[in-house]
Amino acid sequence: MATAKVETGAAGHGAEPRGKRSDDGQATYLVAIAEALWEEMERDERVYMLGEDIGAYGGAFKVTEGFIEHFGDQRVIDTPIAEETIVGMAVGSAMEGFRPVAEFQYADFMSSGFDEITTVLSRYHYRSGVPLPVVLRGPSGGGVRGSSFHSINPEPWFAHAGGIKVVCPAFPSDAKGLLKSAIRDDNPVMYLEHKWIYRRIKEQVSEDPDFLVPIGKAAVRREGSDVSIITYGAMVHKALEAATSLEAKGISVEIVDLRTVYPMDEETVLSSVAKTSRALVLSESYRVLGIGAEVAAVIAEKAFEHLDAPVERLSPPNLPVPFSPTLEDAFLPGVDDIEAAVERLSTW
Amino acid sequence: MATKVHRDTGSTDLSLPDDQLKEILYLLKLARYFDERMEALYRQGRLPGAIYSGRGQEGTHVGVTFALDEGDSLFPTHRDLTAQLTKGLDLKRVMAQFWGRIDGYTRGRDGNSHIGDWQGNKTFTVMSHLPIAYPVAIGAAWAYQRRDDGHVAMAICGDGSTSNGRWHEALNWSAIFRLPVVWVVNNNQFAYSTPNTREFAVPTIAERADAYGMPGVRVDGADVLEVHRAAKEAVDRAREGGGPTLIESVSLRWRGHAGHDPAKYVPKEMLDNYVADKDPVKNFQQLLLDRKVVDDGDIEELNGRIEREFDEGYEYALASPFPEPGDAFKGNWVEDGYWTSEPGRDGGTEAG
Predict the structure, then answer these.
(1) At A14, which CATH number?
(2) Positions of B marked catalytic
(3) Which of A33, A205, A316, B238 has its CA 20 to 30 Å from the CA of residue A177?
(4) Strands, DSSP E only, in chain B?
(5) Contact between B99 and B51 (Cβ < 8 Å)
């Protein structure tokens, strides 16, 4: 893995072309997502995409650049600005056997389709037995000076709905493999792509057309023995950075990347905690009743006998993400905050 | 754009074949009988949950749905059970649903008219957040257009739903893409207790079609043939690639929003006059008697058949077991196989 050149405009918009793999086969997260979409569109005629400005414009972040030219406007559909109906259309067409992938320009705007997502998409199969193979994609997360309406982490809202799998990849390989799995899944999947990662992180990504990363499985990103950090999304990268400097201080950190936040891979979380006996739960979503709160509860309930220290949570307060660099940097968990929390835990 | 076709003709044109006219009469009478008997059972405390009477609106429900073919889909509301029966749902399984039994269409996961049968009769399992199914109908209609298979989607909502943003999103979207969909508004003049005057400031709902770029038509919901003619025209247009139509079918809700609601907010004189003059079931039966499509003997036979079907349905419902308690935790994810296998039948027929 290497850090790619970063090109971000306001709110992380991708004014630059999407780009492609480097000669040595490395792909950015952005390119990996586009590859997954392209391959699944090629593989299965039933797959189609809909969303705002995804056609001729290629999407706000250029994920779908070049798609409409290749797949045509019947499979790459520019929609009116009507999020409830974007979700409704996805559901109705899935009922008729299609496999829609709906793009939200920002994950923030998923709340504009909230009722169709939480009432129809989440609950319809349980009540009717009709499968809804729908993927909702959206760029989530902060750290790009996007402020209140272009930085949200909506995963707790939709994980709570109960009938939607929610995935939050942190690496290009996972981004590709999880999206391909999501499109092939017969259940609704919300796919949250962190916009801070888009052009910053690149790595070798499989070119196997059947390369899949299973939904519902976490990954251990770094082995360690003193403290477990359980996290996901962009925070995985902050945790990795913190772990490197903590190592110099003699503290060995294990990092669990959840990858799927709902349904959660409790087994991987619990076996890491059994090994280290100390847990820092790190999330970019809200602290109160957030994803981290659930992880902490699972550890308290099922790994109590292994714990040498209280479970610690590190996550932003339930407040809008502020714009000014000083405010946003204070708001989001930073590498320093992670280091301090791990050091606190390791004194127990 | 030809819009605002206001019909107020009164139907005497029996251009449908006799067997279809008789089928319409059967459906109207079945709906009325079902509605009355279920309300009686509810008031006696013998029916759990809720009831949402569609009485007085049978002309709308039968009229619009009778225009659909088997492969067409219907997106109804809780008020539209009659439309679902017209589409082909089995009365026995409908009643099993009311009593929360495993043989109901939702296997006990939902009750009353929150029902649907997508796999069989292509009806959407009703949801309460109206008009929540309007955007979903867009997706079905898009699928028919993309496959060019000639099918049509029809969605029903009430007058209250027209105040909701999704109603506008869906109508607008359907016109932009010229989708094969028919939008039906069952304007029964009250959204729970809220009258039309608190729902829209234009004289009619139908004329809103102008603003979206589609034909709009207002029909008398008490006149099943008038409703059916308008629906047939709209369905044919959609099937032939002519895009969406908005149908406002005007009636009056004779009963409360749900079984518990005495609906005192409906002026008594308004209701009395309506019931006396605009009974869609009585009027249609009289028309068929006058035109000698049926005679008194036929009506007697029909009444007997409907009563028998109801009784059989009731018996079937009460004999059907409750779902096994553990079923509550199954069937959320496709891969657990709950919906593709036969459910357990050991839930008993007595609930606590």
Answers:
(1) 3.40.50.970
(2) 253, 257, 265
(3) A316
(4) 5-6, 73-75, 153-158, 181-187, 190-191, 194-195, 216-220, 245-250
(5) no
Q: What is the ipTM of this complex?
A: 0.96
| CA distance to partner chain A, nearest, from residue B259 (Å) | 23
Question: CB distance A125–B334 less than 8 Å?
Answer: yes
Measure CB to CB from residue B166 to each of A84, A186, A187 and give the nearest one: A84
Contact between B3 and B209 (Cβ < 8 Å):
yes
CATH number at residue A250: 3.40.50.920
In chain B (352 residues long), the average pLDDT of successive 10-residue segments reads 47 82 98 98 94 97 98 98 98 98 98 97 98 98 98 98 98 98 98 96 98 98 96 98 98 95 96 97 97 97 98 98 98 98 96 69
Contact A333, A314 (CB under 8 A): yes
Report helix, strand or coil for B284.
Answer: helix
So what's the pLDDT on residue A198? 96
| Placement of tokens 């990858």 in the chain | A259
Q: Does residue A159 sit in the same domain as residue A227?
A: no
Q: Is A13 a catalytic residue?
A: no
| Whether A160 and A290 share a structural domain | no
Count of domains forming chain A: 2
Which residues on chain B are in Cβ contact (under 8 Å) with A123?
127
Instruction: Please give, rounded to a whole number of angstroms, the shortest distance from the CA of B25 to a CA of chain A.
Output: 30
| Residue B51 identity (one-letter amino acid) | I
Task: Write down the residue that tokens 């050091």 correspond to.
Answer: A343
Chain B partners within 8 Å of A126 (Cβ): 109, 331-332
pLDDT in tens, A215-253: 999 999 999 999 999 999 999 999 999 999 999 999 999
The range of the structural domain enclosing residue A305 comes to 219-346
**Would A1 be classed as within a structural domain?**
no
**CATH number, span B17-319:** 3.40.50.970
pLDDT of residue B351: 77
Partners of A103 in beta bridges: A51, A137
Do A261 and A334 fall into the same domain?
yes
Among chain A, residues having any CB pair with chain B shorter than 8 Å are: 74, 79-80, 82, 84-85, 87-98, 100, 115-116, 119-120, 123-131, 162-163, 186-187
How far is A230 from chain B, CA to nearest CA, in Å? 26
Tell me the pLDDT of chain A averaged across its residues.
95
Does A322 share its domain with A233? yes
Boundaries of every domain in chain B? 17-319
Token representation of residue A170: 């942190």
